From TrEMBL:
Highest taxon, organism lineage: Bacteria
Protein name: Dihydroorotase
GO biological process: purine nucleobase catabolic process
Reported cofactor(s): Zn(2+)
NCBIfam families per UniProt: PRK09236.1, pyrC_multi
Gene3D superfamilies referenced in this protein's UniProt entry, alphabetically: Metal-dependent hydrolases, Urease, subunit C, domain 1
């Protein structure tokens, strides 16, 4: 049986950091102690002196573009970028081509991932105005959540029939993950921008078109409907300070009916960055004001916001080079999310224990992921070693996402991910992905 002994690490889990050793046997954490000796000559020993040992990051929102959009990325390429970023587990979204709105298409994605994924995987099921019967067939032990687009949809995935929404919220046992932006408000704002600028709309107009009002109108309506019906909802990628007041910190995450998430780009960028970054920071929902960013940070730190994710959504640089009306929203983030959060740790904006809570513990608890998200004996050995004092600069040469660019190009991160383990297997070490894959499908305790 494969054995790896990690010695002298700063182990971060369950709200504390302590020095110690950790033994991996097979795909599980066998032992955690102040000092562990190798029992035989076959044990691989890694000296982690000065490094943090974290649970593998669980990213609850990625778009890996397969099937149908593989010129942007695919499960193999994007999961490689994920393990390079310390993300050992991901949940992928249903707006691929074809959409994951039938059991058949969900099974197809699972088969691709079983063959090609470097990281543990699960795929959300997509809702439409007319597939409730299919939704009710979903195996809740294998699907993390139902994804609904209440704005900014692709294909026919905009769920805008209020009666359908009420039926879904009332009948679906899964947690319901939501993209909340009001389409009518956005369309009106877009028309006003077209009337003013014609086809040459500045990127700085993006947070005005996809406004605070559009976000709040949709998210507040979803929260109200969840309270009315008993639906369990998780609101993705909050982008406004106003929305944070819809959520509370009065319950433990496992007991919350209504939860929320923030993404890396809404913690890092503001509308002041459009001048330099342009379309590279065009996301839906839009990056908004510095004041919004600070209010989001406040809600993250006081536990109104439960999860940090990426919304990794790559497009080619040619696609992102188009004018506003033709430029798609989204960008690659899985490789740089944890280094970005470690930058905030270094600036004492957030503690490393809180980062682990929001990126590892809470996604596991929120979705009921079995035996992951914590460093505990008997849990799966999904682990990340981070050197907090080993600077590196993001360049095109070290970007692993298939699209080949990043909004973080030129940024120097203080922290470097040196090792990523997926189910006990060394999946990544110092800018090199191990081509042997050892990923597993997630299961959910429900």
């Amino acid at each position: 049986m494969r054995k790896t002994l990690i010695k002298n690490a700063k182990i971060v889990t369950d709200g504390i950091t302590r020095n110690g050793d950790l033994l991996i046997e097979g795909d599980v954490i066998k032992e955690i102690s102040e000092s562990i000796s190798a029992k035989d000559g076959n044990t691989i020993i890694i000296d982690a002196e000065g490094k943090y040992l974290l649970p593998g990051v669980i990213d609850d929102q990625v778009h890996f573009r397969e099937p149908g959009l593989t010129h942007k990325g695919n499960i193999e390429s994007e999961s490689a970028a994920a393990v390079a970023g310390g993300i050992t587990t991901y949940m992928e979204m249903p707006n691929t081509s074809p959409q994951t709105t039938t059991i058949k298409e969900w099974e197809n994605k699972m088969a691709i991932a079983a063959k090609d994924s470097y990281a543990n995987y699960a795929f959300m099921f997509g809702g439409t105005n007319d597939n409730l019967d299919e939704i009710l067939k979903v195996d809740v032990t294998k699907v993390p959540a139902l994804k609904l687009f209440l704005g900014s949809s692709t294909g026919n995935m905009l769920v805008d029939d209020k009666e359908v929404l009420k039926k879904i919220f009332s009948n679906v046992k899964l947690r319901i993950a939501l993209h909340c932006e009001d389409e009518a408000t956005i369309k009106a704002n877009l028309q006003q921008a077209i009337d003013t600028y014609g086809d040459d709309i500045p990127m700085e107009q993006h947070p005005i078109i996809r406004s605070e009002e559009a976000c709040y109108l949709s998210s507040s309506g979803a929260v109200e409907l969840a309270k009315e019906t008993g639906g369990r909802i998780h609101v993705f990628h909050l982008s406004t300070g106003k929305e944070t007041n819809l959520f509370n910190n009065k319950k433990a995450i496992k007991d919350k009916q209504i939860t929320s998430e923030v993404c890396i780009h809404h913690l890092w960028f503001s509308d002041e960055d459009y001048a330099a970054k342009g379309s590279l920071i065009k996301w839906n929902p839009a990056v908004k004001t510095a004041k919004d960013r600070e209010e989001i940070w406040e809600a993250l730190l006081d536990d109104r916001i439960d999860v940090i994710a990426t919304d990794h959504a790559p497009h080619t640089i040619d696609e992102k080079s188009n004018s506003y009306l033709k430029c798609p929203s989204g960008g690659p983030l899985v490789q740089h999310a944890l280094p970005a959060m470690m930058q905030f740790v270094a600036k004492e904006k957030i503690s490393i224990e809180k980062v682990v809570e929001k990126m590892c513990h809470n996604p596991a608890l929120l979705f009921g992921i079995a035996d992951r998200g914590f460093i505990r004996e008997g849990f799966k050995a999904d682990l990340v070693l981070v050197d907090p004092n080993n600077p590196w600069t993001v360049t095109k040469d070290n970007i692993l996402a298939k699209c080949g660019w990043s909004p973080f190009e030129g940024v120097t991160f203080n922290s470097r991910i040196t090792h990523t383990f997926v189910n006990g297997h060394l999946a990544y070490q110092n800018f090199k992905v191990n081509q042997v894959k050892n990923a597993q499908a997630l299961t959910f305790q429900r």
